[in-house]
Amino acid sequence: MLTTNQTSQGTITAVAANFLYSLLFLFGLLLQPLSGTQVASWRVLTMFFSLVLLVSVLKQWQHIFDYLKTLKNAREWFLFILPTPILGAQIWIFMWAPVNGLGLEVTLGYFLYPMIMIVVGRFFYNEDMSLLQWAAIVCAGLGIAYDIFEYGAISWATLFVCLGYPPYYLLRRKLAVPPITGLISDLVLLLPVVLVALYMNGGFEVAITNHKLWYLLPLLGIISTAAMSLTMVASQKLPVSLFGTLCYLEPIFLFIFSIAILDRNLHDGGSMLMYSMIFIALLIMIADSALGYMARKREDRLHGYNEPQVGSFPPRRRLKNRRIKGVLIAHRFRQIKKYQQKIDKMTRKIEALHLD
Questions:
Q1: Per residue in 63-83, is it b (16+ CB within 10 Å) or e — as a string?
Q2: DSSP H helical segments within 100-200, as ranges?
Q3: Burial class for 246, CB neighbours closer than 10 Å (0-12, 13-18, 19+)
Q4: Do 253 and 50 form a contact (C-beta atoms < 8 A)?
Q5: What is the predicted pLDDT for the residue at 305?
Q6: Where are the transmembrane segments (predicted)?
Q7: What is the torsional sign of CA 284, 290, 294, 300?
Q8: Are 172 and 197 in the same domain?
Q9: Hey, how many other C-beta atoms are within 10 angstroms of the C-beta on 342?
């Protein structure tokens, strides 16, 4: 059973993780004279080394390799690699937008993204939607429709964010890719691209000649590692519904930073009516998640069990029991292959005796 102390610790950890992720949004300003594209490239590079260090410390490499062994044919490998450019593009716009005056538009995309995912779940996976979720979708849709009718368009950066992530998660879900396995694989595939980009656009030279970047770039990696670590700790301590509700804090932090630090005007990203409708929709979503969490908590007390945890990084001692079906199939395949080799060897010996 989850204790009140665990829930409190998990809540504080989740808030800290979302705050750190939001701080990364501002790093483009701190890392000038690096361009937005150079900052995004450096983030991929520092994220890669940070994640390698984190996985090594937690001794989770076997967990990653076990999954990769389940990819049996070219089609599965293609579907595994296909989402990588999507993530690379999302990392790019997250770091590029604040430097180029589109921070508020990207923030709006992050507000809309959870609602887009609910619609995707409804129509692609036939998941049930509550009345409050329908109300939130309609509310946000009316706000966007007003801006399109009034001004003729909505920012491409907003659409890029809110419509870019769903295909990524759909493809990852199709192959049941564990989050850490997917992320480190994406970074490995993106690594040659960012190295070439940094070499071609002078990102290495700027970092070498500007002394402040010597400590800011490692700090970028440290904050990325801290945010990922805190997210994993929170996912282990909190129920799924509460963990998902707290994820709405990130776009709220991004919005505050865009107005207070990036000095953006509300009207730069859209009309006041659209923002009001989207904020109302977000509040409805939070209320729906909170009501769902409280209802499940009451049910848990009645039946004596907990809501499942978000097991992104299970302890090694429990890994065998929590492997996905594909990993178990791969294990059985290796055992069968091993016994088949022994049988073939015995068959050859018997045939050799008959020939004698």
A1: beebbeebbeeeeeeeebeeb
A2: 103-124, 131-151, 156-174, 179-200
A3: buried
A4: no
A5: 45
A6: 12-34, 40-57, 77-95, 107-124, 131-148, 154-171, 183-201, 213-233, 240-261, 273-295
A7: positive
A8: yes
A9: 9
Token readout for 93 is 């716009």
CA distances to 264, 306, 313 from 144, rounded to whole Å, are: 20, 39, 38
Q: Please tell me the predicted confidence (pLDDT) of residue 248.
A: 75
Same domain, 226 and 350: no
84-99 vs 103-124: helix axis angle to the nearest 10? 150
Which tokens is 13 given? 């950890």
What is the domain extent for residue 291? Answer: 4-323
Residues 55 and 95 in one domain: yes
Structure tokens at 25: 């949004």
Distance CA 186, CA 54 (A): 16
The per-residue pLDDT for range 96-134, each reduced to its tens digit, is 988 888 888 888 888 787 778 777 777 777 777 778 878
- The arithmetic mean of pLDDT across residues 257-284, rounded, is 74
Are 104 and 191 in a shared domain? yes
Q: Which residue has the tokens 């192959």?
A: 175
From the list 93, 109, 97, 105, the residue with the least C-alpha distance to 29 is: 97
Residue 306: pLDDT above 60? no
Cβ atoms 65, 54 nearer than 8 A:
no
Number of domains in the chain: 2
Q: In terms of C-beta density within 10 A (0-12 exposed, 13-18 middle, 19 or more buried), how is residue 319 classed?
A: middle
- Asked if 317 and 341 sit in the same domain, the reply is no
CA 140 from chain centre, in angstroms, equals 23
Amino acid at 152: G
Q: Is residue 301 located within the same domain as residue 333?
A: no
Tokens of 26: 């501002």
User: CA triplet 89, 189, 206: central angle to 5 degrees?
Assistant: 65
Same domain membership, residue 333 and residue 192: no
Query: Is 305 within 8 Å of 191 (Cβ atoms)?
Result: no
Interior CA angle at 260 toward 244 and 257, to 5°? 30
